[in-house]
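Archive entry. Fields below.
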Amino acid sequence: MPDTRTRILTATGELFRRHGFHGTSLKQVTQAAAATTGSLYHFFPGGKDELARAVLTTSGTAYQELFEIIADGAATPADAISDFFDGAADTLEEHDFVDICPIGTVAREVASTDETLRAASQAVFGGWIDAAARRFAAAGLPAADANELATTVVAALDGAIVLARTARDAGVLRVTGRNMRALVDARMRAPVRNTGANRASSAAHRSRATS
Amino acid sequence: MPDTRTRILTATGELFRRHGFHGTSLKQVTQAAAATTGSLYHFFPGGKDELARAVLTTSGTAYQELFEIIADGAATPADAISDFFDGAADTLEEHDFVDICPIGTVAREVASTDETLRAASQAVFGGWIDAAARRFAAAGLPAADANELATTVVAALDGAIVLARTARDAGVLRVTGRNMRALVDARMRAPVRNTGANRASSAAHRSRATS
DNA sequence: ACGTTACTAGAACGATCGTTCTAGACTCTC
DNA sequence: GAGAGTCTAGAACGATCGTTCTAGTAACGT
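PREDICTED_STRUCTURE:
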């Protein structure tokens, strides 16, 4: 049996995945972790916020390591990307569409509210983007292109997880993975910076955003 | 001054964008809407759940209409996509990175918990994907390809919003929009179905997913 | 004028929230 | 074996949660 601190960390991560930050109570945490309130506040004196921060960074680095492992086993960065998406799809199906990763959920809940948690999620996302960008750059892509591509891939991954969970269909992840692979392949072949036009759509956006 | 029901709806949508479903209390709602508990339960007898369902469908269709407007004003579907991403980026900056849309946030919180809310979010996402797919198909893409492409675009949009809010940098949305535009262009040019290989990465995923 | 319906107002309910606090049970060191 | 950490145990706190309920006002058809 793992020590109390990691039990609390694991249980919190799992609960965050299912119900998010505000939807998870510390009573649920202590029960799931077979711990008591005293222990929780002993290891995390800052309470729920500190606990959340620890969960974010812990599972953030865990997923980064997972990506590195998969990327090490892949022939090309494009393979690594589609492998990661496919692996996520498999995991989602095996876990009956319970969320794989708590970070996107918590990030959305706290981005406008809790500055320290926002910063913690940003650090995690940044680490992922850097990790992917390093692979692209190592394969010959210019640094700026690598970074932009990695940003898009991480965004698509996070969004695809939401869609897949909501639709209870992991195919969304596989499809998005294939498209990301195609995008990576295309960019590798022609690493031209594309400065798209910013047309007059922001006014329409603005007038509708509050409805 | 709008009628009470729409005031409640608007206020709830705004609060959901900032704090999510569980992070928003009905007291906050009534205060922001200048309404009372009695009015809230008069219009939404089902309580918080029914209110959330109404908010999801309302702002879901609002954003779909917004997409149609932008797409109508764009020369090609690829233009429509990058216009929409750029417009979202502008709006996010103007609103100081408060979330643009409550649906992704709520969907994440309730996907594993509340079946009716999950179904409501799925309907919204499905509507968006269909709307985008229709544009792609009208431009000549086979139906299956159009649907897969639309799924990817919606996923990337949702994920890019999360990343942009978290990093407080709308550039993420613009970059992702450019990449989505490139992807759409590429698929339009060569609408070949790409069946990516599912390599042996799910085992690694599985062993790490709980950490 | 009256009854009916639509809506507002907010006190009150039990449950649960995050947090604090005191007390006890284990280690170790000296 | 005394004392100082380290960790566990859980009762108790005030605040706030979603919901219910009763009472009241406004508007309208007849």
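CURATOR_NOTE: DSSP finds ten helices and no strands in chain A.
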